[in-house]
């Protein structure tokens, strides 16, 4: 029997979660017994060129009040953990950076990074009081590698704000969130608690899509 390794924790204790090969998105999904991640069959992952084409059609406008309200689901609770004039990084800002605009308006010094649209790796030589990563984790092929990178860029008292739809209390077979072919990893609160244990930090949840990591006791 072929083993399918979890992209987050690398365990091979994964089992078939859903076979939707005859449904809308036509993919197999696996569940990791170790970290509780559900992920799409790696054979179905898009190559970078196809990924970028999908991202280029995203309509993210910094003047869109509805989009700003959506991002505030993260930014409002995150702002309670940072001081005035903090340095921040939006990791995975996409083709229409908006968090950097919103947080700059609130007095913070912001930088952007995105492997497709703002590939300025000089930001990896800096440190930040906070990092945001919104609607990005579900796209990552190696989420733990990227999470450790973000944590390494944080000041000792820094906070990492994450936004992705949690899969608690959803009917996965009909869940709209899985239908985007660039969405390959699906997290639960249990998964984020596992991540927090690995990163030696605390996690708090806000609503059905926001996790904030803070109080890092040991950043390796």
Describe the model.
With about 220 residues, this protein is of the alpha/beta class. The chain is about 25% helix and about 25% strand. The chain has 5 helices and 10 strands, in the order βββααβαββαββαββ. It has helices at about 50-55, 65-80, 100-105, 145-150, 190-200, and strands at about 15-20, 30, 40, 85-90, 110-115, 130-135, 155-165, 185, 200-205, 210-215. The protein has a 6-stranded mixed β-sheet with strand order 5-4-6-7-10-9, with helices on both faces. The longest helix has 15 residues, at about 65-80. The chain starts with 13 loop residues before the first strand and ends in a 6-residue tail after the last strand.
Biggest beta sheet attributes: 6 strands, mixed
Q: Name the poorly predicted regions.
A: none
Lateral strand order in the biggest sheet? 5-4-6-7-10-9
Q: What is the ordering of alpha helices and beta strands?
A: EEEHHEHEEHEEHEE
The level of helicity is 10-25%
Task: Pick out its properties.
four-stranded antiparallel β-sheet; alpha/beta
In short:
The protein has 220 residues and is an alpha/beta fold. 24% of the residues lie in helices and 24% in strands.
Layout of helices and strands, plus pairs?
Blueprint (H helix, E strand, L loop, with lengths): L13 E6 L8 E5 L5 E3 L7 H9 L8 H15 L7 E5 L7 H7 L3 E5 L14 E7 L8 H10 L1 E10 L21 E2 L2 H11 L2 E5 L3 E5 L6
Parallel strand pairs: 4-5, 4-6, 6-7
Antiparallel strand pairs: 1-2, 2-3, 3-8, 7-10, 9-10
């Amino acid at each position: 029997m072929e083993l399918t390794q979890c992209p987050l924790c690398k365990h091979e204790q994964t089992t078939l979660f859903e076979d939707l090969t005859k449904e809308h998105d036509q993919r197999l999904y696996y569940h990791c017994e170790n970290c509780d991640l559900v992920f799409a069959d790696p054979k179905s992952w898009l190559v970078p060129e196809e990924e970028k084409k999908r991202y280029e059609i995203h309509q993210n406008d910094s003047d869109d009040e509805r989009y700003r309200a959506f991002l505030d689901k993260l930014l409002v609770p995150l702002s309670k953990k940072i001081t005035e004039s903090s340095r921040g990084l939006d990791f995975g800002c996409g083709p229409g950076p908006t968090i950097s605009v919103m947080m700059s308006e609130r007095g913070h010094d912001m930088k952007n990074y995105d492997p497709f649209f703002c590939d300025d790796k000089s930001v990896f030589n800096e440190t930040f009081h906070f990092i945001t990563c919104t609607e990005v984790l579900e796209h990552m092929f190696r989420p733990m590698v990227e999470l450790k990178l973000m944590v390494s860029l944080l000041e000792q008292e820094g906070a990492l704000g994450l936004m992705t739809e949690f899969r608690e209390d959803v009917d996965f077979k009909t869940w709209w969130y899985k239908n985007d072919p660039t969405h390959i990893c699906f997290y639960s609160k249990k998964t984020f608690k596992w991540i927090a244990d690995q990163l030696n930090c605390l996690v708090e949840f806000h609503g059905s899509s926001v996790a904030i990591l803070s109080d890092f006791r040991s950043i390796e």
